[in-house]
């Protein structure tokens, strides 16, 4: 291992902090504006010394986990003439010219609350030149790029390599999202060498192979436009120079956000394209192994890669955009207050990602799929070839079992992905995609010539569609369901037909709830529909799904303006009186300690008795002490629960460090999209378990992760924190991350719950409009699976509104769907509770449990806890307030009691 293992471990020692006022200013500046960090706050990104053997072992294990994941995650998108792999050895190293600023300033992570220090990450050049890669690189080109990046000057003088630098290290500095490239004039400069040759001529003498790295950063409060995701003029000129002067070119994409690679056909020299996303701390070694063939690539794309970003139906419904693909506005209601009242319309309905492109292809004869889609969802190449077929289908107790034979027809061992989709009957009554991922599996490594058989199973009800108009329930319409074994979302290999003879309607009047639901699902988001111009198979190009909001949409209705404030209902208005006041502050004959509750089921009345011991002050403090910790109650044996933020690490950082009072920093894992790109649920579990091991070593019991919003578009600057454009792939991988961490006693906070697919305006009352079918089938699906299959004990609500209600105080979302339908048993915490629309009483009265009240910490503890204490003592609101505080404390302490169960 080439990185310094000592860089990640922390001694549990007292931390010397800068003054409280300075930290408050620093924290507010970073959190609100997102891009400022001072040298005085750099202690949180400093190096840490190892303490216990357990911490050292957790570090070593975590690094191994990274490479196990990235070995299966990186996607070979193109490999013309089977150019890769490149044969190399220690005795005779293959020579490569490396181009692109991102080759020396590689993104390992990105900015915001998940930021980590990556100065000790394995640089791309080091991975390629190490024993892992055995490549020889053109040093002059490395120096050229380093010098230009550091000084802006063209020079090949040997220079000390700079520290790895990425968005993660500098917390989302916007200038690092897209970096300048060495000007092409540098390649024509004949003054750099004494022989009068140019650096390009020397590079051609060195090797006929070139590797080009391009990438895009991201971060909180960052949105990338369609223009941002195209090549810059400098990048395009570089690729032109390289591709016209070298016979063999490898393009490496260092971006989680889909980039527009519409130039590939223009350059036959670009033989191979590899997507490595954000590889985490040591994932660059996997790229080296893939390039030299030590690892046979088996990753698959998690998004559809298009030739034109504006071909995505949601492109014009993200923000206001001009004909060049640049943002011109943020969809602000003209009659709303200046800093409040933005909106986003999900007019494309269920037609997100491949569900649009594949359905359009299947149903519109005039549509040119090949022109719009460069690489389909689920696409990925291997160094071997596989033959797959369905050998048997059987139905057992409403479960479909498909036995799939996978044969390796090539010359090298490899892993393959089994992708099962379905095409349901379409009557027009309910919108349906013609291609829907329902389940998947990853094979073991299969030897050449061998055949292995795998069973992929799913419930028939998993193919139900949500009918929000007529039945207001999940429905399986009668007819033929084509079950398709596919190579990707576009390439069908084999299929079977399952015929349903009559409609199944999952409601009380007909067939009851789905087997995985506690109660029947019915409409909970009707006020979010608002706009009824949703995309249908009519493919009307003039609809707002394609064209964006109309002029009238920029005027908020009175309902919308009223929703900007929350009126606290009185007990009388709620039909409550003094007789309804629950017992609290009770002194039992023998106190019940939390350790006694570790095996007590959630619905056991003993929980009510336990919670009745809490005083009003304790109740309000339990709900108010959620900033990277949960409250310690020493007299009842409730431990202080530390819970840092970050989807790619479990780590103390500039946000959580000062509050938790600890420095423990784990490794930087690959981006969640890379976990999903393995298409291997075991990889998700492996990451979750590894995070759990690190958490145990550092004394953490909570983790503000995983994040599982949908890649609705490539524009969201936080797409690197999320898994995929598809809810099933996202949910099944994320569920295993949750399960792995929970098995180690960690409360995972799945986030951001829900419909948080845009950054701009989301902290300023962003009204999200969608129909309920899309909400449930697309945007809630990952969270549903994280609850039902992963068993998450925590959830973090989101900043945005869903319809007319802030998600953090939405009864339909937090109570009816999350708890009553899905059976969630745990706590719901807000996102950073510091914006005006996030009313603490609304949160408490509608299913929220804990406030991530960062401002209370900085002001000495007086925050939302004081708001709730006042309400609990006010005769007009005390009954409902105390009742909900006790419910919240039960949810919190139930979750905490389960952190001791580390089976």
From TrEMBL:
Family of this protein:
Belongs to the glycosyl hydrolase 3 family.
The UniProt GO MF terms for this protein read:
hydrolase activity, hydrolyzing O-glycosyl compounds
Q: One Pfam family name from the record?
A: Fn3-like
Q: Where is the Fibronectin type III-like domain?
A: 416-489
Q: What is the protein's given name?
A: Glycoside hydrolase family 3 C-terminal domain-containing protein
Gene Ontology BP, a term:
carbohydrate metabolic process
The record, for SUPFAM superfamilies, names:
(Trans)glycosidases, Beta-D-glucan exohydrolase, C-terminal domain
Please give the InterPro entries that the UniProt record associates with this protein: Cellulose_deg_GH3, Fn3-like, GH, Glyco_hydro_3_C, Glyco_hydro_3_C_sf, Glyco_hydro_3_N, Glyco_hydro_3_N_sf, Ig-like_fold
Which residue ranges traverse the bilayer? Answer: 20-45
UniProt entry keywords in alphabetical sequence: Hydrolase, Membrane, Transmembrane, Transmembrane helix
Q: Which organism is it from?
A: Halalkalibacter suaedae
Superkingdom of the source species: Bacteria
């Amino acid at each position: 291992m080439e990185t310094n293992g000592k860089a990640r471990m922390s001694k549990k020692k007292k931390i010397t902090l800068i003054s409280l006022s300075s930290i408050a200013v620093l924290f507010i500046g970073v959190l609100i504006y997102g891009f400022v960090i001072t040298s005085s706050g750099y202690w949180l990104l400093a190096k840490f010394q190892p303490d216990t053997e357990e911490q050292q072992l957790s570090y070593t294990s975590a690094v191994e986990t990274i490479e196990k994941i990235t070995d299966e995650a990186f996607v070979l998108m193109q490999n013309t003439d089977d150019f890769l792999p490149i044969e190399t050895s220690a005795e005779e190293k293959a020579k490569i010219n490396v181009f692109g600023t991102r080759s020396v300033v590689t993104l390992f992570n990105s900015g915001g609350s998940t930021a980590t220090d990556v100065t000790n990450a394995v640089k791309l050049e080091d991975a390629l030149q190490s024993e892992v890669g055995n490549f020889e690189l053109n040093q002059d080109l490395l120096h050229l790029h380093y010098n230009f990046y550091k000084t802006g000057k063209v020079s090949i003088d040997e220079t000390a390599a700079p520290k790895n630098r990425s968005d993660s290290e500098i917390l989302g500095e916007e200038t690092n999202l897209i970096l300048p490239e060495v000007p092409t004039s540098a390649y024509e400069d004949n003054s750099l060498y004494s022989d009068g040759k140019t650096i390009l001529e020397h590079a051609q003498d060195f090797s006929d192979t070139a590797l080009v790295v391009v990438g895009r950063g991201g971060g909180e409060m960052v949105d990338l436009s369609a223009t941002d995701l195209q090549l810059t003029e400098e990048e395009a000129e570089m690729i032109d120079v390289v591709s016209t002067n070298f016979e063999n070119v490898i393009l490496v994409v260092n971006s989680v956000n889909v980039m527009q690679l519409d130039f590939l056909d223009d350059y036959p020299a670009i033989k191979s394209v590899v997507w490595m996303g954000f590889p985490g701390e040591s994932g660059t070694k996997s790229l080296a192994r893939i390039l030299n063939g030590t690892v046979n690539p088996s990753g698959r794309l998690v998004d559809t890669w298009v030739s034109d970003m504006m071909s995505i139906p949601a492109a014009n419904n993200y923000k206001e955009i001009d004909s060049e693909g640049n943002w011109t506005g943020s969809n602000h209601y003209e009659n709303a207050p200046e800093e409040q009242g933005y909106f986003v319309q999900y007019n494309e309905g269920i037609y997100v990602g491949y569900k649009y492109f594949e359905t359009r292809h299947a149903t519109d004869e005039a549509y040119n799929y090949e022109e719009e889609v460069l690489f389909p969802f689920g696409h990925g190449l291997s160094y071997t070839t596989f033959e797959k077929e369905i050998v048997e289908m059987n139905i057992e107790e409403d479960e479909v079992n498909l036995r799939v034979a996978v044969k390796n027809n090539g010359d090298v061992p490899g892993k393959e992905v089994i992708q099962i989709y379905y095409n349901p009957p379409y009557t027009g009554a309910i919108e349906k995609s013609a291609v829907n991922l329902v389940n998947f599996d990853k094979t073991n490594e299969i030897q050449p010539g061998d055949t292995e058989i795998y069973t992929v199973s799913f419930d028939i009800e998993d193919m139900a569609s949500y009918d929000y108009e007529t039945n207001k329930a999940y429905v399986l319409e009668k007819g033929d369901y084509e079950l398709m074994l596919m190579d990707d979302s576009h390439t069908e290999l084999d299929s079977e037909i399952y015929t349903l003879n009559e409609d199944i309607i999952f409601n009380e009047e007909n067939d009851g709830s789905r087997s995985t639901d506690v109660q029947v699902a019915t409409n909970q988001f009707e006020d979010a529909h608002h706009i009824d111009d949703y995309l249908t198979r009519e493919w009307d190009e003039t609809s707002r799904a394609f064209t964006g909001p109309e002029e009238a949409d920029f005027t908020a209705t009175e309902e919308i303006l009223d929703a900007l404030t929350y009126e606290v209902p009185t007990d009388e208005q709620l039909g409550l009186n003094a007789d309804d006041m629950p017992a609290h502050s009770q002194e039992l004959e023998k106190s019940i300690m939390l350790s006694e509750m570790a095996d007590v089921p959630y619905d056991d009345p003993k929980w009510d008795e336990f919670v009745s011991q809490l005083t009003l002050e304790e109740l309000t403090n339990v709900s108010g002490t959620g900033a990277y910790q949960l409250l310690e109650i020493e007299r009842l044996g409730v431990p202080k629960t530390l819970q840092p933020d970050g989807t790619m690490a479990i780590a103390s950082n500039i946000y959580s460090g000062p509050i938790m009072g600890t420095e423990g920093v784990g490794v930087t894992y690959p981006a969640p999209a890379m976990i999903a790109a393995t298409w291997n649920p075991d990889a998700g579990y492996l990451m979750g378990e590894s995070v759990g091991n690190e958490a145990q070593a550092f004394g953490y019991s909570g983790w503000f992760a995983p994040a599982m919003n949908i890649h609705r578009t490539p524009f969201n600057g936080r797409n690197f924190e999320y898994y995929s454009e598809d809810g099933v792939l996202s949910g099944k991988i994320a569920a295993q991350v949750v399960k792995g961490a929970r098995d180690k006693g960690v409360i995972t906070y799945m986030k951001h719950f829900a419909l948080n697919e845009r950054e701009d305006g989301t902290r300023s009352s962003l009204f999200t409009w969608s129909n309920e079918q899309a909400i449930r089938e697309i945007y809630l699906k990952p969270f549903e699976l994280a609850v039902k299959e992963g068993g998450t004990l925590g959830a973090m609500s989101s900043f945005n509104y869903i319809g007319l209600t802030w998600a953090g105080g939405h009864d339909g979302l937090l109570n009816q769907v999350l708890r009553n339908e899905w059976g969630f048993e745990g706590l719901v915490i807000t996102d950073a509770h510091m914006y005006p629309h996030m009313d603490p009483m609304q949160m408490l009265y509608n299913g929220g449990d804990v406030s991530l009240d960062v401002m209370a910490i900085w002001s000495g503890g007086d925050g939302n806890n004081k708001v709730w204490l006042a309400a609990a003592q006010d005769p007009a609101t005390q009954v409902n307030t105390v009742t909900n505080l006790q419910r919240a404390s039960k949810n919190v302490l139930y979750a905490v009691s389960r952190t001791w169960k580390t089976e």
